Amino acid sequence: MTEFRLDGKLAVVTGASRGLGKQMAEALAEAGASVALVARERARLDSVNAEIAARGGKSRAFVADVADETAVARLARQILEQSGVPEILINNAGINIRKPLHEFEFEEWRRVLSTNLDGSFLCARAFIPGMIEKRFGRILNITSTMAHVSLAGRAAYSASKFGLLGMTKALALELAPHGITVNGISPGPFATEMNIPLTQNPKLNAEFVSKIPVGRWGKVEEIGALAVFLCSDHAAFITGTDIVVDGGWTAQ
Questions:
Q1: Among 121, 157, 190, 249, the one annotated catalytic
Q2: Are the CB atoms for 151 and 207 separated by under 8 Å?
């Protein structure tokens, strides 16, 4: 990590209270960035904040629901007042509801799309103006292998992630003239809270792992290291793309 430093940069990470968001926030802080931790649960955020501080990192916790337009506008004001203008935004907040499409309530469908897609739009819209003014920015949208392939019962999640991938490409073209890169990271099978239904079922877990060419679940640290690189000066020529991190799963 010493080569890919982010000293002096302010990063906003949504969904930072657990899983991949937590790991990316910690990795960015370790690389020297100040991190604005965003999530809906204060207690979990405070715990992550304390862990980063214990390691000598800098962070602040901000409670907000990224699917709420008013809440995101308030979040942007709070970060500006308390921390400054962010150069890095990681849109990681996301939810998944697994069930056949015909069993979805419309409210459930909208909840997945609102968090995963609308939330990324609202946060990008809020923080892009400051990046344009600075002539520098790094936006990472956490997409998914479900933005490239899908599985039964993932209609809402895949719809949101395919949409996020499309937004990533269009936004990269819009912002390239301003010195801002926009990329996606598509995690595959990582043993995070979102995949607890699989990891806690021995039969389903064994079947799932057997389909991963490298033969294991991903480690969250593997996403953190990639995020740091993509936010660094070394990745200035990488934009409009999506990096799949899935142990070879979608290559089959």
A1: 157
A2: no
Query: Can you give the residue range of the structural domain that contains 232?
Result: 10-245
Specify whether 120 is catalytic.
no
Q: Residues 104, 110: contact at Cβ < 8 Å? A: no
Q: Is residue 250 part of a domain?
A: no
Going by C-alpha positions, the residue among 44, 159, 56, 155 that lies closest to residue 102 is 155
Full-model pTM: 0.94
Residue 180 scores a pLDDT above 80: yes
Residues in contact with 150: Cβ distance below 8 Å, sequence separation at least 6, in sequence order: 158
The structural domain count of the chain equals 1
Q: What is the pLDDT of residues 114-123, one digit of tens each?
A: 999 999 999 9
Res. 6 pLDDT band, cuts 50 70 90: very high
Number of H helices, E strands in the chain: 9, 7
Locate 36 and state its tokens. 């604005």
Q: Report the C-alpha gap between 51 and 55 in whole angstroms.
A: 7
